[in-house]
Amino acid sequence: MATFKISLNMEYCRSADKGFEEGVKIAREIGYDYIEPMVHTGWELLSEVQYFHSFSMEEDPLYMREICDRYHIKVSSLSGHSPLMKPEAAVSRLTRAIQFATVLNAPFVNTDEMVKPGWMDDEFAHQTMKYTLTKANLVAARHRVHICIEPHGIYTKTAEGLLKIVNLVPSPWIGVNWDTGNSYLAGIEDPYEGLDLVKDKVRHIHAKDISMAHAEAERGLVTGTPVGCACGEGVVEWEKIFEIMEPVDREIFLSVECGTIEQAEKSLGFLRETLGKLLISEK
Questions:
Q1: Per residue in 3-43, pLDDT tens?
Q2: In the chain, what are the helix, strand and coil shares in percent, each to the nearest 5?
Q3: Which CATH code is given to the segment(s) 3-278?
């Protein structure tokens, strides 16, 4: 039987212009035990002046852990999204995120294929992604960290396309981060049938709900969206998701991806109530 832990993607505080440490503090005050930080390479201006939550991997990973320990919160996973079709960027970014995750005792690094350049055909794109994932998997296997690919782009908008990328490099360390909102917005296939097809590969879930207005405006026109509304206030059928995943015998993180602090608080309450016996309590 699957069991779940709840985490919070740090995008929740982007609209409030909060830096990393302030975002961690607020997440703890709301009641979260885990967070999913976004990491980047180099130095990013808004993060440096604490208006943005992303954390530079030029910093010491122990510095991130020190901040989290200060607020008694743990890191479930890292949002290390890297353009798999651009290996000159993705290989270094993914491998550094994996190394960072090891220090933080975080077992997952999440990514997607991002944008396909216009000059790449499909075969070239998949060969390029295979190269990127082969290099990243060597590091993931050493560090025992899972690379989780989510539906968010031209190829991953279907379960078949997502599995094709996941299976480019056969490895127990490459799996799926199922994004409940992106799969719904893509609008190409039933998102619950899609989840059922990939469930054996799912290691991590982005718990993203989509408001009715958002769904009506963009479903079938986009392959993803940065954040959703509060879990339980949109179109996603959460009971159906948990029913599909329940037979999968492992612990899975649900990382809430919403757009505001208020939505993060509402999402936590909703998921705690809905999960019931499937929720692993940290108390």
A1: 999 999 999 999 999 999 999 999 999 999 999 999 999 99
A2: 45, 20, 35
A3: 3.20.20.150
